Amino acid sequence: MFKEERDELLFDWSMIGDINLGRPNLGTVMDVSVYRLMQFTLRDVLIKSYDTETADRIFYEAGKQAGIAFSQKIITQKNDFNEFIADLQNQLKALGVGILRIEKSDLETMSFTLTVSEDLDCSGLPVSDETICTYDEGFISGILFDFTGKSFIVKEIDCWCSGDRVCRFDVKPE
Q1: Is 2 a residue whose pLDDT tops 80?
Q2: I want to staple 97 with a disulfide (CB 3.0 to 4.6 A). Which of 79, 92, 108, 154 is the partner?
Q3: For residue 9, which phi and psi values (nearest 5 degrees)?
């Protein structure tokens, strides 16, 4: 499934498998700490093997591909921007990813300030001197790319880890 060397990404939602068939007793729910264990150990190995910039680039790109796949598979409202955002908010909350809010929006320029509270990646972590939601940046970029067909630059400007109680993202077209 992933062993061959290649230049393009081949992820397809079917690679997630039939969770109901494979986990008839445990289902789709797992503890957030297990997700963070995978995420932070993977990031640590990438930083050790390469550097922080490379690890962040890889996490952003992986998040972007996940955002595209998530939008294609999970989001059903794709004709109207307000309905799209409402569906996205509902799905992110229902799946336990976080609570998405739009603080500011300019639909003419497609520029936004978004917040995610109770973020899967960082809510509850100790305060440090960094923002850490690089995967989320890519995830948001990918979701918006799938909806608009245009590339977006998403940058986290506030994070639970930098002392805020929400993650705040600046979103602009590329």
Answers
A1: no
A2: 92
A3: -85, 140
Cβ atoms of 104 and 112 closer than 8 Å: yes
What are 153's two structure tokens? 């630059």
Minimal CA–CA distance to 91: which of 65, 107, 72, 106?
72
Q: What is the 3-state secondary structure (H, E, C) of the chain?
A: CCCCCCCCCCCCHHHHCCHHHHCCCCCCCCCHHHHHHHHHHHHHHHHHHCCHHHHHHHHHHHHHHHHHHHHHHHCCCCCCHHHHHHHHHHHHHHCCCCEEEEEEEECCCCEEEEEEECCCCCCCCCCCCCCCCHHHHHHHHHHHHHHHCCCEEEEEEECHHHCCCCEEEEEEEC
